[in-house]
Write a structure and sequence with these properties.
The chain is mainly beta and 331 residues long. The protein has one domain (38-46, 106-330): BT2081, beta-jelly-roll domain (Jelly Rolls). Helices cover 11% and strands 47% of the residues. The protein is built from 2 helices and 26 strands. Strands 5, 12, 13, 14, 18, 19, 21, 22, 23 and 24 form a 10-stranded mixed β-sheet that branches. Strands 1, 8, 9, 15, 20 and 26 form a 6-stranded antiparallel β-sheet that branches. It has a 3-stranded mixed β-sheet with strand order 3-2-4, with no helix packed on it.
């Protein structure tokens, strides 16, 4: 009897230890499987801004306008084209332009805004009017990885993407984009279009957007054309107001061909955005996405905007706030 009691105690002890080990394993396994690290994106904490002061032509009133773009803190006075520092990947929708020989600047659609002890970025859809030529332009607040080729001219008005060099070199393998955000999105199903330089109303609901494209690019040396295969895709539309900050929000980056995913959307497909870049000869050419792959990425395109309605089309007043941009990696 004593022998049985001792063995029962041993058995119970082993059983308890086994249950604890299994429980610990169940707790520990997801931690190991989902261990992550984050890397801040340069200037993505939104605490450093370049302030540009541009004086419009006297024909436009001669007012001085202030434009903002992400970068090492600086103030630039004078009507000159801006070129980002080599370590600064950011461009934005606030640009210096010359139309018909008249110097002007887009109305502010990108702003630093106080948040706690630092700043965030406010992106807003703004309707602008140039009275001299009676021209309207709907400008969406947008920041992106790439650079605008200033000063913008009339070609940029008719073919705006022709003035943007999309994307920057990048060879890493993130699994998600992380950011803080909130939004003020109208319930309206009316979009204002100024593609014909006047105000026209169209039906549609406008959303804010955030997307990341990882691409493997190469150039056909004989033609100078740039081709790409899509390696990674992250995309999110924000179609309703979110009044309180959502912190550490992750948008997963899906690798390879995502067209068979159950949640794949047409707007995530190839060539939905008319992206351009400079080739080896310095000429601006279209980037043609020719397929999906698991190649090593060569470039990243990160695009954040207060509108998804298209060029010079948006719901006036829609606003997106973003902060603390980071890329997430597996440990």
């Amino acid at each position: 009897m004593q022998y049985r009691k001792q063995n029962s105690k041993k058995w119970l002890s082993s059983y308890a230890f086994g249950r604890i080990s299994i429980l610990f394993g169940l707790i520990y396994l997801p931690i190991v499987a989902w261990a992550q690290r984050t890397e801040p994106i340069i200037y993505g904490d939104m605490n450093q801004w370049i302030v540009r002061q541009i004086t419009e032509s006297k024909l436009l009133g001669g007012n001085t306008k202030t434009l903002y773009t992400l970068g090492a803190s600086d103030t630039i006075k004078g009507n000159s084209a801006y070129k980002a520092a080599t370590n600064n990947p950011w461009g934005c929708s606030d640009t210096y332009a010359r139309f018909m020989g008249v110097e002007t600047a887009t109305s502010g659609s990108v702003y630093p805004e106080k948040r706690g002890n630092g700043y965030c970025c406010r992106l807003r859809n703004v309707l602008t009017h140039i009275p001299l030529v009676d021209m309207y332009a709907m400008v969406s607040g947008t920041i992106y990885m790439g650079h605008a080729l200033e000063p913008l001219g009339i070609t940029a008005k008719s073919k705006p993407y022709s003035a943007i060099d999309f994307g920057v070199p990048f060879t890493k393998h993130p699994i998600a984009l992380m950011l803080d955000y909130k939004a003020s999105i109208s319930n309206s199903n009316v979009i204002i279009s100024t593609k014909n330089n006047k105000i026209e109303k169209e039906s549609g609901h406008d959303c804010a957007i955030v997307y990341v494209y990882l691409q493997y690019r190469w150039e056909d040396k004989s033609t100078g054309k740039i081709y790409a295969r899509r390696v990674g895709t992250a995309y999110e539309r924000i179609c309703a107001s979110i009044p309180e900050w959502v912190n550490n929000h992750q948008i997963p980056i899906r690798w390879g061909n995502i067209t068979n995913d159950k949640d794949f959307k047409d707007y995530e497909g190839l060539n939905r955005v008319k992206m351009m870049t400079k080739n080896s000869k310095g000429n601006m050419v279209a980037i043609e996405e020719v397929g999906w792959s698991l190649d090593e990425p060569t470039h990243i395109v990160l695009y954040i905007s207060s509108s998804n309605a298209g060029v010079f089309r948006a719901c006036e007043g829609n606003t997106l706030w973003v902060d603390n941009l980071k890329l997430v990696y597996k440990e």
